[in-house]
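Quick one, tokens below. Sequence please?
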């Protein structure tokens, strides 16, 4: 009888476990389009996860197996698959007794434990965020030291009512901080299970509730906005008085050299005067001691996809103007409004109107069109809203491009873009492009066949073919001559190509060496991951040599007088500094590079009457460094002060809000007697 009862109990338990095996399914949505899924199946203490996203022809494909202990903390965690750009993932964590071990792209690690620890994955899916949140809810102060290092913090927000196929539900907002530069926003259901991971631009949401995605993304934008409003309140100095920046030398882009020591007067949003160093101050001024450093005009990042999270960081890098090369139009308009009204800190924004053709590989910014008439309508929409240019993307039908160019030019807009699939740079130059976007797009026509599809990762993996390319060949020289004769410009984005071809598992990326140790641990682990799969014989060597060929091509373009535009496509900020450095390898000098990043770029976009140099009457957009960047360009990496529209920021005050260790000190500021002007 006892045995029968035990068997019955076992059968009941087995049935319960089978019921628990019903998968938790989620949709990944970007630009109102479902671009991926996450399916988590739990049996007992083991959860298996299938996570796959394909947006713009690329995205991660991840499989996970997680075993948890009685406390809900993972005891074993295996992650495999491929990252967004195709590099392989082979990550494993195990803890037992008083020891934890792990392996990821940075190598192997171990720790001795006094209690079970919470491991943060390097390449895991968003399912991990729910695990972290549940552990933090139980932790004192909702804060935990985690493996392999760092501290996570969870902050509880408001309840949100949602409806969907599963019926009405009340979920709770949580903000998860400590992994990367900006927090993650999660929604948990009443059982503490992940309902959504959401930002203004995309969302992972429980299947059946996709209809809530627009509203939830709007809420996420508002939550993030408040965070940056709070940061702006804490770090933006609006002195309400003339500000004298003393004892500085100016980088003058007209001469590409430094001036003698001077004082610069800022009043309101403008430069009031540039005076000799011995000019006496006037009553009521704020004085900032430049300590013999260099004052540089605000720089232009010409290939941004600006988001709220990167706006202030770009500013702290001395980038006071960005050219946005494609975005959610409504989200970008809202962000520009927040910046222009002073709610949050960020650069001036020059807008590019993104237009993509409809295909299985479409990107999801701006307009996605399926006819020439709709493509022209999109051009007209951007023209009516004052966009500076349109940007054409990979899935566009190349036959529609000439008509789009004609319409854009008639409306006073320029045209830039990728090379549409099954076409080449020669055709786009001939069709009327004013600027080519990305050096790989420019070069691929020399090494691929007409029927090979560049809407996928192939437009990156095909770079392996570049080492054998003869830059003196008639085909190459013909394309370059078209650029010269047509007075075309090019936006090479050298830095992203360096990362694609040179980053390797377990190694500090060459472009990040100067700031790597200042970044949060989660950022550092992610950085030590290859972007591309170099495991096949010969691929490692081919990718490394491909970047040399890319640099040689940029040097050739520069030598022939083609205007080089400096942009990153990697978020700017620290990567923008690396972008500038790389052009030294292409034959440009440090003074040339600074001139191009400031006044030359201002002239290119028609803003040189108000920006690009430090002169009386221009907007007060400038930054202070302690060294001489005309002799060593790395001096721009230790910025002590940034001024944008007459608002003063000190990176030392800003960086801790992002988990970044500051690089230098702020200059001494002396307020006038009894001014009370602390901000």
């Amino acid at each position: 009888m006892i045995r029968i009862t035990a068997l019955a109990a076992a059968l009941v338990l087995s049935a319960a476990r089978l019921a628990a095996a019903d998968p938790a399914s989620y949709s990944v949505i970007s630009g109102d389009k479902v671009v991926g899924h996450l399916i988590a199946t739990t049996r007992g203490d083991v959860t298996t996860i299938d996570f796959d996203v394909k947006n713009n022809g690329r995205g991660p494909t991840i499989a996970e197996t997680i075993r948890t202990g009685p406390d809900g903390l993972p005891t074993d965690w295996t992650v495999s698959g491929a990252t967004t750009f195709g590099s392989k993932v082979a990550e494993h964590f195990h803890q037992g007794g008083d020891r934890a071990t792990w392996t990821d792209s940075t190598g192997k690690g171990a720790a001795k434990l006094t209690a079970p620890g919470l491991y943060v994955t390097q390449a895991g899916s968003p399912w991990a965020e729910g695990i972290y949140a549940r552990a933090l809810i139980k932790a004192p102060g909702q804060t935990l030291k985690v493996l392999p290092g760092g501290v996570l913090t969870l902050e509880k927000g408001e309840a949100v009512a949602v409806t969907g196929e599963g019926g009405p539900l009340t979920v709770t907002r949580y903000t998860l901080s400590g992994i990367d530069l900006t927090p993650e926003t999660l929604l948990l259901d009443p059982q503490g299970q992940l309902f959504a991971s959401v930002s203004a631009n995309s969302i992972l949401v429980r299947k059946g509730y996709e209809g809530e995605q627009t509203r939830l993304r709007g809420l996420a934008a508002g939550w993030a906005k408040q965070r940056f409003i709070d940061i702006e309140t804490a770090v933006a100095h609006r002195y309400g008085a003339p500000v004298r920046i003393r004892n500085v030398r100016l980088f003058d882009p007209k001469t590409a050299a430094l001036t003698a020591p001077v004082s610069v007067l800022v009043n309101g949003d403008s430069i009031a005067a540039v005076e000799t160093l011995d000019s006496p101050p006037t009553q009521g001024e704020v004085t900032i001691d430049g300590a013999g450093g260099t004052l540089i005009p605000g720089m232009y990042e010409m290939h941004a996809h600006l988001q709220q999270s990167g706006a202030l960081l770009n500013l702290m890098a001395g980038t006071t103007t960005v050219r946005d090369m494609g975005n959610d139009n409504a989200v970008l308009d809202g962000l520009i409004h927040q910046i222009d009204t002073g709610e949050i800190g960020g650069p001036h924004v020059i807008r590019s109107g993104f237009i993509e053709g409809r295909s299985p590989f479409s990107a999801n910014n701006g307009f996605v069109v399926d006819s020439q008439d709709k493509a022209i309508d999109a051009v007209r929409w951007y023209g009516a809203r004052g966009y500076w240019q349109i940007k054409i993307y990979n899935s566009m039908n190349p036959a529609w491009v000439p008509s789009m160019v004609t319409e854009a030019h008639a409306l006073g807009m320029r045209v830039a873009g990728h090379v549409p699939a099954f076409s080449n740079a020669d055709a786009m130059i001939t069709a009327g492009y004013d600027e080519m976007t990305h050096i790989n797009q420019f070069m691929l026509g020399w090494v691929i066949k007409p029927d090979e599809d560049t809407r996928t990762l192939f437009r990156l993996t095909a770079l392996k073919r570049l080492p054998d390319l003869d830059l003196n060949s008639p085909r190459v020289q013909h394309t370059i001559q078209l650029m010269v004769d047509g007075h075309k410009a090019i936006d090479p984005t050298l830095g992203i190509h360096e990362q694609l071809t040179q980053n390797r598992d377990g190694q500090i990326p060459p472009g990040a060496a100067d700031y790597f140790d200042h970044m949060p641990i989660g950022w550092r682990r992610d950085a030590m991951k290859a972007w591309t799969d170099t495991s096949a014989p010969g691929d490692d060597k081919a990718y490394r040599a491909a970047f040399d060929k890319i640099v040689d091509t940029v040097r050739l373009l520069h030598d022939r007088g083609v205007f080089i535009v400096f942009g990153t496509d990697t978020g700017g900020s620290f990567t923008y500094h690396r972008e500038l450095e790389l052009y030294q390898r292409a034959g440009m000098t440090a003074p040339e590079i600074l001139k191009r990043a400031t006044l030359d770029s201002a002239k290119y976009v028609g803003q040189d009457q108000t920006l690009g140099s430090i002169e009386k009457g221009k907007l007060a957009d400038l930054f202070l460094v302690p060294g001489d960047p005309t002799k060593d360009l790395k001096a721009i990496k230790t910025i002590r002060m940034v001024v944008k529209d007459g608002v003063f920021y000190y990176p030392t005050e800003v960086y801790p809000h992002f988990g970044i260790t500051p690089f230098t000190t702020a200059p001494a500021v002396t307020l006038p007697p009894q001014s009370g002007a602390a901000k």
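The first strand starts at residue 24 and ends at 30. Residues 1-20 have pLDDT under 50 and may be disordered.
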